[in-house]
Amino acid sequence: MASQITLFDLPSKPTNKCWSANAWKTRLVLNYKSIPYTTEWIEFADIAPHHKALSIPPNPENPNLPKDFPSAYTIPAVHFLKDGTYMQDSLAIARELEKRYPSPSLHLDTPQQAAMEALWSKMITSILPALTPNVVANVMTERSVPYFVETREKAFNIKISDWEKIDADTAWAEVAPVLTGFGDVLREKGGPFALGAEPSFADFIVVAVMQFLKAIGNGTFDRFVGADEALGRLYEASKQWADKDT
Question: Which 3 state secondary structure label does DSSP give 3?
């Protein structure tokens, strides 16, 4: 079937495969709904000029991010080929996809989704310093590294090299309650998904994290999945929608 959507995603090394957690949210939705799509890879430094050239509206200011963090134009973004619509932001894209392709349903805006979003926000805030060196070393393209490092060091007023000194065991120990929280949400209705037997966008938030960790390596995926039995069950039930990663 001919492609109906172009997904704009971040390239990786050595060959282009999806690694961004936010991009994986959209990719999982497209795969789950069996929507034909193609991928166009956009380097970090090219995101803003690319989106501006296509008149994609900027994201609203995020009060949870540092003032200098480049969040106005982000990945993922999509182009709906049928009517020419462009848009960005994984949740906004999910809502639009749900309108255009209502079956199977994503069951958006559930309490479980809100809980997963809050847990992920808490987790990434705590463990980002420990993960960033893996991102730079293991998945980021040579062209994207200088832009990424410069913008993150400015936004967070740090040196990425300082983050390399962080003890991984300590960092993961600090987020252990968050990982248990993910498991608690999944257990609430019996699993393997947050709503029980049927997947929803709440699950794809967590599976996207797993795919991100799997890509950056250094044992981070195993640490996450091994932290709670419910996380392993979720991944096994969801990995069929992670097969298409390009």
Answer: coil
- Burial 145-174, CB ≥16 within 10 A → b, else e: bebbbeebbeebeeebeebeeeebeebbee
Average pLDDT per block of 10 residues along the chain, 246 residues long: 95 95 98 98 98 96 83 97 98 98 98 98 92 95 96 91 91 96 98 98 98 97 97 98 96
> How many Å separate Cα 184 from the centre of its chain?
21
pTM over 0.90: yes
Rg (CA), the chain: 17
Backbone torsions φ then ψ of 57, nearest 5 degrees = -60, 140
Q: How far apart are CA 110 and CA 219, in angstroms?
A: 31
Could you give the CA distance from residue 239 to residue 67 in angstroms, rounded to a whole number? Answer: 36
Condensed to tens digits (0 to 9), the pLDDT of residues 139-166 reads 999 999 999 999 999 998 989 999 989 9
Residue 134, token pair as written in the block: 């893996």
| Dist CA 136 CA 236 (whole Å) | 28
